[in-house]
Amino acid sequence: xxxxxxxxxxxxxxxxxxxxxxxxxxxxxxxxxxxxxxxxxxxxxxxxxxxxxxxxxxxxxxxxxxxxxxxxxxxxxxxxxxxxxxxxxxxxxxxxxxxxxxxxxxxxxxxxxxxxxxxxxxxxxxxxxxxxxxxxxxxxxxxxxxxxxxxxxxxxxxxxxxxxxxxxxxxxxxxxxxxxxxxxxxxxxxxxxxxxxxxxxxxxxxxxxxxxxxxxxxxxxxxxxxxxxxxxxxxxxxxxxxxxxxxxxxxxxxxxxxxxxxxxxxxxxxxxxxxxxxxxxxxxxxxxxxxxxxxxxxxxxxxxxxxxxxxxxxxxxxxxxxxxxxxxxxxxxxxxxxxxxxxxxxxxxxxxxxxxxxxxxxxxxxxxxxxxxxxxxxxxxxxxxxxxxxxxxxxxxxxxxxxxxxxx
Amino acid sequence: xxxxxxxxxxxxxxxxxxxxxxxxxxxxxxxxxxxxxxxxxxxxxxxxxxxxxxxxxxxxxxxxxxxxxxxxxxxxxxxxxxxxxxxxxxxxxxxxxxxxxxxxxxxxxxxxxxxxxxxxxxxxxxxxxxxxxxxxxxxxxxxxxxxxxxxxxxxxxxxxxxxxxxxxxxxxxxxxxxxxxxxxxxxxxxxxxxxxxxxxxxxxxxxxxxxxxxxxxxxxxxxxxxxxxxxxxxxxxxxxxxxxxxxxxxxxxxxxxxxxxxxxxxxxxxxxxxxxxxxxxxxxxxxxxxxxxxxxxxxxxxxxxxxxxxxxxxxxxxxxxxxxxxxxxxxxxxxxxxxxxxxxxxxxxxxxxxxxxxxxxxxxxxxxx
Lengths: 408, 369
Prior knowledge:
The complex is a heterodimer of chains A (about 400) and B (about 375).
Chain A: H1 8-34, H2 41-53, H3 74-95, H4 100-109, H5 112-119, E1 130-133, E2 149-153, E3 156-167, H6 169-175, E4 179-185, E5 195-201, E6 207-212, E7 223-234, E8 238-239, H7 249-255, H8 258-286, H9 302-329, H10 335-360, H11 362-365, H12 371-378, H13 388-400
Parallel strand pairs in A: 1-4
Antiparallel strand pairs in A: 2-3, 3-7, 4-5, 5-8, 6-7
Chain B: H1 8-35, H2 40-48, H3 69-82, H4 84-91, H5 94-103, H6 106-116, E1 124-127, E2 143-147, E3 150-161, E4 168-174, E5 184-190, E6 196-201, E7 212-223, H7 236-268, E8 270-271, E9 274-275, H8 280-309, H9 314-339, H10 350-358
Parallel strand pairs in B: 1-4
Antiparallel strand pairs in B: 2-3, 3-7, 4-5, 6-7, 8-9
């Protein structure tokens, strides 16, 4: 039955996370935006302890999967809690110690042994991070054009290449007992079929963080450049089979992790958008401006019209995101719906936050308030985990029934 | 518990209506639009599906099924996908039957519901809109003044579906001298009542096959017992929320029709050696259309779900309807664009869908769930 009421368990998690967002994230939000590249250790330690005490809310669930079976609404709960955390601060949310996108790849494509070796560590000890390294200076959306190489040498793979835009790359590669999942080709002539993912332990000789980027927003989260120079890793650190197939099955397997991560990014976007809308609503209330739902749209003021557009677009993005997450939970194929949620949320929230700054004028543009920061933070959601345009391309291929060769 | 899956029963109803829309309605749409007339056979066929009567309690001769706004939204989308004029015509009797079902006095139910539990199509309608550029549901200008045991109705109404043939008509007018939904009451006006003047059938840009009429009320006297809900009156805001949900769902149906046609055309039509769907300019347009149709449908479902729970739903229904009105205009316009010159030619249905789609920003109260 069509139903929009969240499960009581999700509501409880949402309320708990909202308190964290309000009391532990908002107060330090501005500080760690201004002090880029410094880590809010009190907050990170707190979140790490919390993830040890309870079932982690993000991708950290895998390590505990045996003890606590994942609920049938795990992805929906993730979407809801990620929205709350991002309502608090999207940059801080992204910097929370957890297996991250690298962990998602291990969870999706790893062997039981790999899961044990790389994910179990997230159950205890010091805070740890996982990261995913795909993008290179010369390729972004076209991940099939990857030039980093992995060459087999006895019991090892030897990795060479440069990766950029690695979220939490510094923490995963050098500053914690984490790991980085690296995409590299084992056979350039094989195109996509030759691209494989490899797990590199933190501190492996030959893996060096050479730069931490300065960004428009989400400044509390580190975005690293990692250089691999004759970096030797054990042969069994490859994710999936080493066999190069003519078909693109292996590549598709790795791409499938996006079906889980895109709704998560959309959920984060929505949290930022909601923060902006809440801020505008409160400012309107202070000024005695009421939003008149139900009157002729022709009689609306531009303020009302803009505000309603923001609300409707955000809610549309949220429902698309819930749907994509719910489909995951049902075991349904959600590639189309995941891209829809991401394409909609990235754009909607970019526009919602831009409009919010405009509506509040000098208050919106001032660094005294967080609104301008949210606009800067929001924009990344229109870009990472597949730009809006890449997601439109995936949607188009799906609805038209075209392969990537037929529509590119 | 969040779910995006209709119940088995809802899915069955939706599939039945979808098959009817595909096999029976759609083939007639073009000619009906050209002629400005809907064949009576399809109206009876549609009536036989029980889309109006099923919710009427058994005591009044109906099937007594539970009325659901979500189910209503599913039905409205499918019917409008077939053809908007035929959809509005088939569901018009609901405009008087459902408000009576939900808010009528026992005597009104006895009188009206029994009439609509008939085996033959029975025309019924409601007069909501008024012929002004700034028409506002929250500020109706038609008035109803109490005089002893009667109400005297005055004012002008327009876009009354089946206005000339409706045996039972529900006319909305303000009973208090102020704006607002709570100042409005509905009045059952029977065909031929003195002071109810029927204008010419309206000639509209779209929904050309649907008969809509202008009505003028000149000291039209109806018994006080004809006031919807009697002394207690009705909840006009709630009725209009149900209407918004129906219209939003119909906008989704029209948009989906245009999207599917444009998508198929884009796969078929070749230019520069490939199907035009293989060009990003076209493919991206289609991707956005698909995405926005889904977005609009989910907003509509959410508003419908709120209605079914009995929650206050003005904000959700209003936003969903306005979103859908914008969406359908953009989607149908893009569909024309995908077809290029052919989209402008009446042999293809796309220009009709754009004309029909334009109406949703203007329509209020023309359908209900």
